[in-house]
From TrEMBL:
Keyword Coiled coil found: no
Database matches in Pfam families: tRNA_m1G_MT
Organism: Dactylosporangium sucinum
Gene (name only): trmD
Protein's UniProt name: tRNA (guanine-N(1)-)-methyltransferase
Chain sites annotated for binding S-adenosyl-L-methionine: G109, L133, G134, D135, Y136, V137, L138
Coiled-coil residues: none
Keywords: Cytoplasm, Methyltransferase, S-adenosyl-L-methionine, Transferase, tRNA processing
Length: 234
């Protein structure tokens, strides 16, 4: 998968060198390039923003540098992803869909966001998704890109040592994962549930399913309701 990220703060994306994303890059599973939007400015101040039409506080990102950046970086298979608190909520289903794309191009907004014409114009030439991390407002899209890329990269073939991890974890089948335990069997007076040490794999699987459903009912009844509606795409 090829990934391009356009931002006015390239250093914000430094964690993409680390951990399993860094390894996926080193292995060639993921090719990531981070670009400074100011490369596509032409004035002495390298201006990327201006005051909003209609008035109001803050600044809006001007369309010209974005238009040129997209002209240069987009290709026939590009999916433009624009983080925005006004976007569609990001879920595991979104991550699965993005993991199938050959080229993701991320446009990180700052200030009051990007002039809407950039997104509207891009949508006439390529697939565009405006994606929200949640119902809160961040300073910029960079953190959202890190989150989306981490969720997507772990779904790419060969990135996780044991691909079975993907089958049993939270949100894989619409519910949360059951609680997990490791050694020692007793810690600070708390025991690991006996059944997990029984060696009976059938019983363990049933216990885990039960716990997963209980936890989901307690913490995220909305997920169970979606499952009942036949939607496993959380
Ligand atoms: N004025 C915008 C609004 O009210 O919808 C908020 C702009 S925000 C301060 C600046 C940038 O941060 C956005 O363009 C977007 O890239 C990013 N951002 C902020 N909150 C986000 C969220 N919940 N999900 C994804 N991106 C977000």
């Amino acid at each position: 998968m090829r990934v391009d990220v356009v931002t006015i703060f390239p250093d914000y994306l430094a964690p993409l060198e680390l951990s399993l994303i860094g390894k996926a890059r080193a292995a060639g599973t993921l090719q990531v390039e981070v670009h400074d939007l100011r490369r596509w400015t032409h004035d002495v101040h390298r201006t990327v923003d201006d005051t909003p039409y209609g008035g109001g506080p803050g600044m809006v990102m001007r369309p010209e540098p974005w238009g040129q950046a997209l002209d240069e970086l987009a290709g026939p298979e590009t999916h433009l992803v624009v983080p925005s608190p006004a976007g569609t909520p990001f879920t595991q289903a979104t991550a699965r869909a993005l993991a199938g794309d050959p080229h993701l191009l991320f446009a990180c907004g700052r200030y009051e966001g990007i002039d809407q014409r950039v997104i509207d114009h891009a949508a006439t030439r390529m697939r565009v998704s405006e994606i929200s991390l949640g119902d809160y407002v961040l300073f910029g899209g960079e953190v959202a890109v890190l989150v989306v890329l981490e969720a997507v990269t772990r779904l790419l073939p060969g990135v996780l040592g044991n691909a079975d991890s993907l089958l049993e974890e939270s949100h894989a089948d619409g519910v949360l994962e059951a609680p997990m335990y490791t050694k020692p069997p007793t810690w600070r007076g708390l025991d690991v549930p006996e059944i997990l040490r029984s060696g009976d794999h059938g019983k363990i699987a049933r216990w885990r399913r039960e716990q997963a459903l209980l936890r989901t009912a307690e913490r995220r009844p909305d997920l169970l309701a979606a499952l009942e509606d036949g939607d496993q795409g959380t």
